[in-house]
Structure to design on (1270 residues):
């Protein structure tokens, strides 16, 4: 009856928010436990070992390669709308996808040649356009797509697990949010993207997928390439329109996200870096093509269609291996690789956000390194956005896919145009060939972007097409604000120096007790005019205070104000306005607030936080200096 | 696909939290719109008109009378576990409930006689026990039960609406949370409990229920008192144990909550107040008994059993009136009355919390009156707790019922024992009779408390039985903290006076610009020693700063600190420790932080809030005075 899991999701989201606040004292020890000891800045510059390309391959390919687990299925899901007779179309669609992969890899190899120190779409666009807009289009599209990568990869991982263990089905959303939470902690601890340990699960998954494809062919040699379940090839069922085919193609294209990782990471390769990076691109292209084609072919032969609760991969594995140990191992390795893909996206997102923020287009907080030298704010923003998507779409991969891929293809297109401009400008050896390759790349990726945007518009792409311009516009506004602020704050140190003014200190007193004593001791130690202000809620309390103040020997002048509305704010604010009018501009008005600090944090709940609220209000609306004098309770 | 309603719930809960924060500036205009203009304290003392008892009756009885809508059904739901053949037991169970109602009303009339100025269980217990524990048991139980009243009443109201309009069924939880949100706003605006307008819906609902009962009897006269659907009377189905019967009785007892309202409100009656209150109690007892008996009887005759999505009331109405206009009117009036019941609970809860908080047993914030003179914090706490219950139990009335009623009966018992002690102490006319009535009351309510606790233990009562002691223990801890704080803060004004010390002002500078200029102008205007501190992240930046400082003509001494961990906090904290050691205890260390305030609120996101974090940390861990010098950005 109790919907504890719905609560758990909320708790996890709250915990994420708390992590953001964990820089503050109270959670310091919790934070230390979760994240680990802080690391000094110099740790940044200790060079990590550079990687042999065969090791770099799996490390950099988790994102691209893992998407074979959901790409073909997403294509099938679209074809399912016109019935099983359209299933054969998954074959030409996969062939088109592989061709697209080939073109993209060629284009990206050109990128590696152009930017040996690593160049993502943002860097390429920034370098080759005068205006900042193309670079912003590229970065915003990638950031949005990274969020979707995390949402899709984790959802797909969980959905595969739920196919193996149906008991998990009702808890998919909660589990997905939980996985994000774990990834945040891992990433805040700072696992390097290049950690060799990440190579093995991906290798293992690649080997598993190749094994599945080989077992499939053996099966087909024994039982025939056309089996009872195989749908007829080439039939044109009613309702099959070009739109349906393009929509299926758009969905299948989601297998191609993550291709940019290698070109961003050229410096982690062993020398000769460019050559090794290119070698890795080609190897990755071959193995991904083989897997996509083989997997789709077997899906077709066995007439596998979309069932809620059982992924296509799980159905295929069950045909070959039953639900035995081999099935379990492959499902687990799929899960692990999809989570690794999400993990590497965390690093990519936070690094890209930091680069863009350093240029002033995003809040500067994204450039701050956390305790473990990771860009914590980017990590947490990504986690929050991906969690929100997962909760809204209830971890449904095929519902998330329509939002996906536009971003990546848009960024691809911008980067390719950038490269075109570069080849024209710089020329260099064989530049016509390189130009030609990128020209084909530009045309194809632009076309795919258009296809995805149009065919997926109504089922979700519109969300991205609304959000992207918003992000770009805010980026421009942010940059303008930074520039304006810098202008305003600039002074000429030769002509402008600090000047002394008359300071009037206003001490807020609530009675005569130790906290007030402590505050007045401080106030009267300054060389300023001091006046004490008491706000009473009725005449009686004001008379009382005046009498007691006199009995105390009037440590300074006392002003009493009456509040009709039980708020200290109004009379105090009126009083300050009166002072401002009387004293003119050159005067510093200085409000001193007593505040007592309990020994135990929960005791804060027991005391009115009026000093805090007052401070926040004065800060925002008045030009007064505010001092808080703490009194630390002993008990 | 999109679970927007789950999101909406979260949004509403967040909005509730924002309302708590709405005292702060940014939301001031929103708050004004929702809550209305602030009211002066003197408005409290304008006497409201006192009420004729027949008008007071419906106003004070919404809580008790509305529970006929769910009480008998909750009993039936328990009996349903042993099959429809047990349905006849609802008749003896309702008779027992009515007897219990009679005993409770008699006992409460004794309470009215003893405390003519209005005495709830808390007041009675506080007045008649030396220890504070019984009073705390009473208040905590009532507070917990008020929360449940809101959750149950609103859920029941929504479930009845959903029975009439099945399209609402998937959105029950969201709608219930939404209703709470509306009630919070209404209550923060400050609707007086005694508003005459509240009389009419309850009158109307009473009339409707009586009409239903009369129509029922006419129907039975025409078609026979035993109809085809009537289950056999007196059969003992397999599995029918004493436990099942007691459990059904416990659930049915939930109809008796809210009975204490009249005894709390004696002062709103016209003179002679006590006599009119007693008259009202008797009238309410008669009409509630008639309704409970009649309603249960018709439920039995028509063999109505529990169906998800259709309340028993809705089923009965459908038999008599179809789904026509009469059905709609009665369902709507049921809804309105249940919401009114929740509304009056808001007032009861916040007033009780304020009384208990005034005695130091709850955070003092509960005694603060909001803009419209209502106890806002109590209102918001109640709303948050009830929303949480509704979300956890998905607005399922029969799942909430087991948690319900223990609290009320526990408070009843404590109050009765208190009255027993009072009669022994004070005696007075007919005291033996009064003592006797309260003795019977004590025994019966104690017994009912025990029955509810035991029979409902596993299905939810354990939650309440864990939470109650926790609340009581924290109340004691809270009171102890307040007493200790008061002791610590007390000073003797004759011997203790403010003393002047040497003040060292430490100004944090981040470079040479207008904000720093502004801050140094203030710092050097105080008559204190001033030292500027610069924290650099590497040697280069430190050298640079030292050079520029000198070029600026060194407005004061500059200390540079190097941070290895990219945090200003560590080096600054170390520096302060060094100062403390050097300067000894008598010294005030005074940290001055520059902070710039953007013109637009969202610009805050673009600037590191390091001054804020630094301030929070220093506050908690260091005994330093902190001054923030604002610089208001012009653009």
């Amino acid at each position: 009856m109790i919907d504890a899991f719905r609560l758990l999701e909320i708790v996890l989201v709250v915990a994420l928010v708390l992590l953001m606040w964990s820089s503050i004292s109270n959670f310091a020890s919790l934070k230390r436990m979760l994240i680990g000891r802080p690391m000094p800045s110099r740790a940044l510059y200790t060079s990590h070992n550079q990687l042999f390309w065969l090791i770099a391959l799996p490390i950099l390919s988790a994102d691209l390669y893992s998407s074979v687990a959901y790409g073909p299925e997403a294509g099938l899901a679209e074809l399912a709308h016109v019935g099983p007779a359209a299933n054969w179309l998954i074959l030409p669609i996969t062939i088109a996808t592989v061709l697209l992969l080939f073109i993209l890899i060629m284009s990206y190899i050109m990128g590696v040649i152009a930017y040996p120190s690593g160049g993502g779409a943002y860097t390429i666009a920034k370098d080759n356009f005068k205006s900042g807009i193309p670079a912003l289009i590229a970065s915003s599209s990638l950031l949005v797509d990274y969020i979707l990568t995390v949402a899709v990869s984790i959802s797909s991982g969980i959905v595969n697990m739920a196919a193996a263990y149906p008991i998990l089905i009702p808890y998919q959303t909660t589990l997905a949010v939980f996985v994000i939470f774990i990834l945040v902690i891992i990433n805040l601890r700072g696992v390097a993207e290049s950690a060799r340990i990440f190579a093995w699960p991906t290798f293992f998954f690649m080997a598993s997928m190749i094994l599945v494809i080989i077992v499939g062919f053996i099966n087909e040699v024994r039982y025939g390439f056309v089996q009872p379940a195989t749908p007829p090839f080439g039939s044109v069922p009613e309702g099959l329109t070009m739109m349906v085919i393009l929509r299926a193609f758009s969905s299948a294209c989601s297998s191609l996200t993550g291709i940019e990782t290698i070109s961003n990471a050229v410096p982690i390769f062993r020398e000769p870096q460019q050559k090794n990076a290119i070698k890795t691109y080609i190897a990755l292209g071959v193995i991904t093509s083989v897997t996509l084609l083989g997997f789709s072919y077997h899906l077709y032969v066995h007439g596998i269609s979309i069932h809620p609760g059982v992924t296509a991969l799980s159905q295929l594995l069950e045909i070959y291996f039953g639900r035995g140990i081999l099935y379990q191992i492959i499902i687990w390795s799929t899960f692990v690789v999809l989570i690794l893909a999400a993990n590497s996206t965390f690093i990519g997102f936070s690094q890209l956000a930091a680069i863009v923020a350093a240029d002033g287009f995003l809040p500067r907080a994204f450039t701050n390194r956390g305790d473990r030298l990771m860009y914590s704010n980017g990590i947490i923003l990504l986690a929050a956005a991906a969690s929100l998507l997962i909760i809204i779409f209830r971890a449904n991969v095929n519902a998330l896919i329509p939002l996906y891929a536009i971003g990546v293809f848009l960024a691809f297109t911008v980067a390719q145009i950038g490269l075109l401009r570069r080849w024209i400008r710089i020329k260099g050896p064989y530049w016509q060939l390189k130009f030609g390759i990128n020209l084909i790349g530009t045309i194809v990726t632009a076309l795919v972007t258009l296809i995805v945007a149009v065919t997926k518009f109504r089922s979700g792409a519109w969300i991205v097409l609304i959000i992207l311009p918003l992000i770009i516009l805010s980026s421009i506004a942010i940059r303008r604000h930074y520039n304006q602020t810098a202008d305003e704050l600039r002074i000429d140190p030769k002509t402008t120096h600090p000047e002394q003014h008359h300071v009037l200190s206003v001490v807020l007193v609530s009675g005569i007790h130790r906290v007030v004593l402590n505050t007045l001791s401080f106030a009267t130690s300054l060389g300023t005019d001091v006046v004490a202000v008491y706000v009473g809620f009725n005449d009686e309390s004001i008379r009382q205070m005046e009498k007691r103040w006199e009995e105390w020997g009037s440590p300074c002048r006392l002003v009493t104000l009456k509040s009709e509305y039980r708020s200290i704010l109004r009379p105090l604010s009126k009083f300050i306005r009166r002072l401002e009018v009387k004293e003119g501009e050159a005067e510093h008005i200085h409000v001193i607030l007593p505040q007592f600090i309990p020994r135990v944090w929960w005791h804060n709940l027991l005391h009115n936080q009026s000093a805090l609220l007052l401070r926040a209000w004065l800060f925002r609306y008045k030009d007064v200096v505010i001092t808080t004098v703490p009194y630390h309770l002993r008990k």
User: Anything to note?
Assistant: Residues 503-632 of chain B form a domain with the Rossmann fold fold (CATH 3.40.50).
